[in-house]
Design a protein that fits this description.
The protein has helices spanning 3-20, 47-55; strands spanning 73-82, 87-93, 99-110, 115-123, 131-142, 156-161, 166-172, 182-191. By secondary structure, it is mainly β. The protein folds into two domains: 3-55, no CATH class; 73-191, Sandwich (Jelly Rolls), CATH 2.60.120. Strands 1, 2, 3, 4, 5, 6, 7 and 8 form an eight-stranded mixed sheet that branches. Helix 1 runs antiparallel to helix 2 (47-55). The protein is rod-shaped, with a radius of gyration of 30 Å. The structure holds calcium ion. The site of calcium ion (CA) has 8 residues, from helix 2.
C-alpha cells in the first residue's frame, strides 16, 4: 500500500470512528442490524467491525461470498405393541418439509413364528385416495430376528415426496394365524 492509500485509509477510519462514537440525540436509530456488516459475528455492529474494514482497506479480490446453507430436518421415533386383529396409526405434521423417509421394524417375539402384517401410508388421513401405498411386510420371530438389538433394525425403508400437510402411517396386525401381538417401531425422518 502506498502512502496515498495509507493516508486515505487513515482519514476514512477517522471519519467512520468519529461518526460511530457520535451520540444519537433526540431519537433512537431506525437502522436495522445487518448480519453482513457484522464482520466478527458477535451480534452487534460496533468499532470492531469498522476496524476490520479499515485494516482491509485497499484490498481487492473475488466478491463472491461463502454462504453456509442449513437444511431443516425433523426426526420421530415411535414404538408400540399391536395386539392381534388391531392396528396402530401414527401421524406427523409435514408443513414446511419436502422429503420424508420412513423406516419400519416389526417382530413377533422370542421363539414366535413370523406373521404377515399390512402397512398403509398417506398424506392427509382417512381418505383412501390419499394413500400413497399399502403393502405387506413380515414381522419376524426371535431368534429368527437376528439383527440386534431388534429395535435398531430397519426391515423396510421408504422415501416419499411430501404432498400434504400431514403424513400418516398405519400398521395392521390382521386377525389371522398366528394369533399373536406384534412389536413395531417406526422412524420418520423429514427434511425441508
Ligand atoms: Ca460485530
Amino acid at each position: 500500500m502506498n502512502w496515498k492509500n495509507y493516508l486515505m485509509a487513515l482519514c476514512l477510519c477517522g471519519i467512520i470512528l468519529a461518526l460511530a462514537f457520535t451520540p444519537l440525540i433526540g431519537s433512537q436509530t431506525t437502522w436495522q442490524y445487518d448480519p453482513w456488516l457484522d464482520y466478527n459475528d458477535d451480534g452487534k455492529i460496533d468499532a470492531k467491525d469498522i476496524g476490520i474494514t479499515c485494516r482491509a482497506f485497499g484490498t481487492k479480490g473475488d466478491p463472491v461470498k461463502p454462504v453456509m446453507v442449513t437444511y431443516q430436518t425433523c426426526e420421530y421415533n415411535f414404538s408400540n405393541t399391536i395386539p392381534n386383529g388391531q392396528y396402530w396409526t401414527v401421524e406427523v405434521s409435514t408443513i414446511g418439509f419436502r422429503t420424508l423417509t420412513i423406516s419400519i421394524s416389526a417382530y413377533t417375539g422370542l421363539y414366535q413364528p413370523s406373521k404377515t402384517i399390512h402397512v398403509y401410508t398417506g398424506f392427509e388421513r382417512g381418505v383412501h385416495s390419499n394413500w400413497i401405498e399399502d403393502f405387506d411386510m413380515t414381522a419376524k420371530g426371535l431368534p429368527e430376528y437376528v439383527i440386534s438389538p431388534p429395535g435398531k433394525a430397519n426391515d423396510l425403508t421408504r422415501t416419499y415426496t411430501v404432498t400434504g400437510s400431514k403424513f400418516w402411517i398405519c400398521i395392521s396386525n390382521p386377525d389371522a394365524s398366528p394369533y399373536i401381538s406384534i412389536s413395531a417401531q417406526i422412524s420418520i425422518y423429514i427434511t425441508a
